Amino acid sequence: AALREFIAGTIGADVAESVRIIYGGSVNPATSTELGGMADIDGFLVGGASLKGDQFVDIINTNSGVTSVKPITVGINGFGRIGRLVMRAARDYPLIKVKAINDPFVPPEYMRYMFKYDTVHGEYDGDVEVDGDDMIIDGNPIKVLAEMDPNNLGWGDHGCDYVIESTGAFTTTDKAQAHLDAGAKKVVISAPSADAPMFVMGVNEEGYDSSMNVVSNASCTTNCLAPLAKIVHDEFGIAEGLMTTVHAVTATQKTVDG
Fold first, then answer.
1. Nearest-5° angle of CA 41, CA 49, CA 52?
2. What is the C-alpha to C-alpha distance for residues 176 and 171, in angstroms, rounded to an integer?
3. Which residues contact 37 (CB under 8 A, 6 or more apart)?
4. SS3 94
């Protein structure tokens, strides 16, 4: 309470009452409870890079009495270009935890190799190991599955609430339903869909509703074109247009890892 008393004595009681004091030192689950109980500390600056997802969540939930925040648990179906990049991106978000990966065409050791050494994006700078049916990334075990039929994946048994459907094979709501039947709660299709709602970040994501259980992140071309087209249309208006696509090399062309 000494810091707040100092502010009250030098600036004013009203300022001391309204100011929020944020602790910027090293915080971890072992110290967060004690620090959170101090009258002069209203919050923490937490460095996510040095903490695993569960530790980050434990700090957020300090002294709340309830588990107000928990990690989003993810399963990846298809560990090709998109699946591997989703796995890399998830590391930067401590509230996202990948629990299982399914790919019937890639054995775990080769899966590890392709994830670790990427010709386009470079070598992964973390630790990647294989232990039986688990791939261990930065100390986090991830179950490796090899099922052709998504009905047999048992996402619920592996604790996966969200599934990234990145095989390119299950792109309709009817086909993606197999993931929901296997225990997932939501499915995000990484390709355009004939009937699932499609969203592009920065363009129309505000139209998402939590009642939607299967959505598409649209195509690679759409994600490149739509944000630019939206800006032009909002500012100047587009009556009609002609697009020419010069596409990047895809996984079917073996100049890309595969």
1. 85
2. 7
3. 63
4. coil
pLDDT band at 124 (very low <50, low <70, confident <90, very high): very high
E-assigned strand segments in the chain = 22-23, 43-44, 72-77, 96-102, 117-118, 122-123, 128-131, 134-137, 140-145, 162-165, 186-189, 214-216
d(CA 109, CA 119): 17
pLDDT in tens, 32-88: 878 877 878 887 776 655 666 667 777 777 666 555 567 899 999 999 989 999 999
Q: What does the angle CA 148 – CA 78 – CA 251 come to, to the nearest 5 degrees?
A: 115
What lies within 8 Å, CB to CB, of 84 at 6+ separation is 114, 115, 118
pLDDT tens-digit map of 185-215: 999 999 999 999 999 999 999 999 999 999 9
- The residues that are catalytic are 220
Enumerate residues 6+ apart whose C-beta is below 8 A from 52.
94, 138, 139, 140
Distance CA 201, CA 144 (A): 30
Residue 163 CA to residue 152 CA, distance in Å, equals 14
